[in-house]
Amino acid sequence: MSHYTDNVGQVSKWTTLGSNTNSSYDLDDETGAVGNVSIINGEGINAQVRHECHVWLDYTDGIYTKHFDWPVMGDFTVMLNSGNVALAADPGDIDVDIQGSIDGSTYVKLADGLTWDAGTTATQIDSFVYDYDASGRMPYMRIAFDCGSDADNRHKPIKVVVVPH
Amino acid sequence: MPTVTTGWPECTGWKNYRYKLTRLAPVTDYIINTVTGEFANNALNIWIDDDWFTHGDALGQTYLVAMKTGIADAVRKIYKPRVFTDGTSGLSTDAQSDMGLSAKWFGVTNADTTTTVDVANSEASTIGRDNVSQSLYTVIPGLHIGFERTTSTAFANGDEFSWTMKSAALDGVEKIMDGSYTNWVAFPIAASDEVYTQTMPTYVANRSFNLNVQNIGYPKHSGSSGNTALTIILQGSNDNSAFVDIMTLVDDFDWQDGATVGLTPYGTPIMQFQTHHDINALDGENFLYKRLKFTMEAGTGTEREVHPYQWSKVTIIPN
Question: CB neighbours of A49 closer than 8 A, spacing ≥ 6?
Fold first, then answer.
């Protein structure tokens, strides 16, 4: 059991309209963390309906996505770095968990996700499945990242995609 | 002889709604009756996240908190509606409210522990009317008090703050119905004591669920040494009379283990723990009636007694 404080500023909002292209928003641009998808005329087919957000892996005190803004009613798959970006610096082994909260303020760990070696190559994509029957649900749920090293990835967000089963 | 209690007032009923933790406004939501001493500079703040204060035997009663001075000041008296102490009408008795000269409900210091509330440098997420963090203490199910920022030696003997709740205090407070069920439980006090909830709602009783227990501070102890061994057991019955133990959900949990190491790993001065109960088709755990049993295990070593009349929020979130 563990508790985390919410840490804003390191993640974008969730969107239901993702894309298969990488984003290049960096934290020096404050508007970058808000926007998630750039829809350009003529590229409509690149947009897909799913739950997606961006995460900047540049912190060691815990990085937390915003709470899921959709109801969790079953298993789901979490894909890390679905845009296949090569990080600027290696954040070490990242402990990825699913957390839950009654009030949206104090969170507890519901389930272990995986230990992800993000590295700095462009092939570090990984995924895990959240077992709903084994771990249940809570009114607020989010994904927690605990990086092993403090690396500067302010210009290299990764995409996190959640696919409900 | 261990104390065994079932239902009210140690346990409220299960409800499928609750309210967002909200700080109330004086005059609008409650009437301040007396303010003396340091409370005139830093009034108590009143917070709610449930509607049990509207109980027919609670509305109209005057809540009162009185202090005593010391090396670190402490809360000596807490008067509350008696329906929450022994189930009868009126105000709690002196014996139920006044700790006297030697004991205390809790001290007011610079740390949140199992015997104190932080009034000097709280890091709670709840922000008081003075615009700084304040740690809370639960007076009755769903009603909490917070001290505005002050020092641990600011109070004098008899400094007093009393108030009366208004039924309209919930007007405009966000109501939450998210599929969870909430029950407030006052933990067993001494080793081997047992507290039983009312039976769980039929809709959730035979489903897998997450059990979440949250106290908006740390449940306070008397004494200074020993451990607390809270165990929560799921029980079942087919006649709502004879219950059997199904399985242990929480085994020998001592919340002071978190308190003594400071704010980590808790992060904020709130006790919260969670466990998941997974039902499958082959486990034979379906019963017509289910309830939770809270007990303090009696093992080797010294058990610390928990103060009476302090409730934790117990929430079930069915799969």
Answer: A16, A17, A18
Cβ–Cβ < 8 Å for B256, B151 = no
Instruction: Using an 8 Å CB-CB cutoff, list chain B residues near A137.
Output: 210, 317, 319
* Cβ–Cβ gap B210/A106 under 8 Å: no
Rg (CA), chain B: 19
For B57-75, how does the pLDDT look when each residue is reduced to its tens digit (9 = 90+)?
999 999 999 999 988 899 9
CA nearest A23: which of A63, A64, A81? A81
Looking up tokens 């771990």 gives A135
Task: Give the pair of three-digit tokens for residue B145.
Answer: 């008090």
Measured on CA atoms in the order A137, B261, B119, B52, is the torsion positive or negative? Answer: positive
How far apart CA B48 and CA B66 sit, in angstroms, is: 20
Q: What is the pLDDT of residue A9?
A: 41
Q: Are B176 and B18 in contact (CB under 8 A)?
A: yes
CA distance A138 to chain B (A): 6
Residue B264's pLDDT is what? 36
Measured CA angle at B87 (ends B21, B165), to 5 deg? 40
pLDDT, tens only, A135-164: 999 999 999 999 988 888 888 888 899 998
Distance from CA of B4 to the nearest CA of A (A): 29
The kind and range of the H/E element at B97 are: helix B94-97
Tokens of A112: 């272990």
Alpha helices, DSSP H only, in chain B?
94-97, 202-205, 256-259
Query: C-alpha dihedral over B54, B59, B62, B65, to 10 degrees?
Result: -10
The rounded distance, in Å, linking the Cα atoms of B13 and B42 is 35
Q: Can you tell me the distance from the alpha carbon of B217 to that of B113, in angstroms, rounded to the nearest whole number?
A: 8
Beta carbons of B312 and B217 less than 8 angstroms apart: no
* Strands, E assignment, A44-164: 47-55, 63-64, 76-80, 93-101, 107-117, 126-130, 140-146, 158-164
Residue A2's pLDDT is what?
A: 32
Q: Which of A127-136, B125-134, B223-232, B277-286 has the lowest mean pLDDT?
A: B277-286
Asked if the Cβ–Cβ distance from A102 to B313 is below 8 Å, we say yes
For residue A60, pLDDT over 90 is answered with: no
